[in-house]
């Protein structure tokens, strides 16, 4: 196996972030050489009065990109120069390719392959893989072998640390798919990874633990009837947390024994845990039902996944339906989740969730929607505690209940003809949270706007008003004010002008804190197909009503240019 790997990797090891795939059967249709790229620059100016400057008075930056394509294989280069730094990037840090010929795809270099969420998912490896997936065949195979983690010693090399300390880790895996149709198929999965104990010197291995992991997985997708579908995944992960301990031949029975048999090192640190995810959906003409169940053991781990939650049991159900020729759409759902499945933790958390959404669109002009959701979580201490007098504290006093409610409503109405268009919009959102410790937070926001567009002259005007209020224990804040926006196209829409002005007042407990005037202006001009010029200006004026907060003004202006080419 290692010999095959080294043959595959030899051709690309000298080019180690860039990835591509290529169909070798269409190689003759690819252009032998093509070059494309861009050159650009931006220049920014800044001034402030009344406060200390929050950035440099002047800043410039030049950037360029170059992409060379050889028979469909892209080699991108980029460079950035500014008054602060100079940076050049190229693709030869992590290089991978996936050439394909008919039903066979090879994966070489830095790649990542997806088996399933609980086995191999999202982890990048340096190595080789192959996928054989004939279109009409009932059997498809994916296999891989490679390095998943490179060795990094504690303290780095000569004091330079280039990542989280770790042992070198190599892994291999196979996924066998049975079934011609996606909705009537099954996956048999095997994955194994092991750390190399000798990859990190003993003098720099303090705090590191070399591990070994073996996983067996099964995925099933089955269309039970025309409308009823079932999907499930079950995985068993055998995990030795420290392979340096003496191999005592720890035995497991049944299915767990099959997973443990994948390990070369079984000792007191070896565990076998399971993960299960099952989903059933029923799709009728006017409604859809969905039921989901998930359970992941407390210590379930896989070296094939970057991140995975464990110690949870989750049940979710949802329903959605359409009425009145799809003019009304309604969906509702709810669920329950808990942790501490093994009852080993000193506390446990339970969550309840529910949601409801409805939308009504009687015609193309009007759309109205509303939504509501409720999330509650309860954290409960399971072990009795005592105070200084050795008196037991009531466990109820150590429980925390949190409830969060969210609601929203929105309405949109648009009308017009070939010359003029009118759009009215209003949106309201509310969120409230409280707990049994008398802590309460309330936030709501309301935004309404009107937009007028004169189509022949490409001119649009909009006026909006926004108000937000945030109330929590000992704190109350309100921000409100209007915004006026204008946009105009010129020179056969080669030039675009945008301007906006807003006046927002901020209040605390009913007292005015400050008035904020914000003005923005932008221009974008496409000189030709390859040339683009932009100009933007922003002016901010804050009039403070508080003695300890100064009034100030800020002005920012920027000019940018970009040129693109290709041949």
SSE inventory with pairings:
Layout: H1 2-10, E1 18-23, E2 33-49, E3 58-70, E4 73-82, E5 86-89, E6 95-101, E7 104-111, E8 125-132, E9 139-149, E10 168-181, E11 184-196, E12 212-223, E13 228-240, H2 254-260, E14 270-283, E15 287-296, E16 312-323, E17 328-338, E18 347-360, E19 366-381, E20 400-416, E21 420-435, E22 440-454, E23 459-472, E24 475-490, E25 495-508, E26 511-526, E27 531-544, E28 552-566
Parallel strand pairs: 1-6
Antiparallel strand pairs: 2-3, 2-28, 3-4, 4-5, 6-7, 7-8, 8-9, 9-10, 10-11, 11-12, 12-13, 13-14, 14-15, 15-16, 16-17, 17-18, 18-19, 19-20, 20-21, 21-22, 22-23, 23-24, 24-25, 25-26, 26-27, 27-28
Query: Can you write the helix and strand succession as a string?
Result: HEEEEEEEEEEEEEHEEEEEEEEEEEEEEE
Number of helices: 2
Shape: globular
- Kindly name the structural category: mainly beta
Residue runs with pLDDT of under 50 for 5 or more positions: 1-20, 384-397
Strand residues, percent: over 45%
Counted beta strands: 28
Task: Give the biggest beta sheet.
Answer: 28 strands, mixed
How big is the Rg? 31 Å
Integer average pLDDT: 87
Helix content: under 10%
End-to-end CA span: 43 Å
In short:
With 567 residues, the chain is mainly beta. The chain has two helices and 28 strands. A hairpin with a 2-residue loop joins strand 6 (95-101) and strand 7.
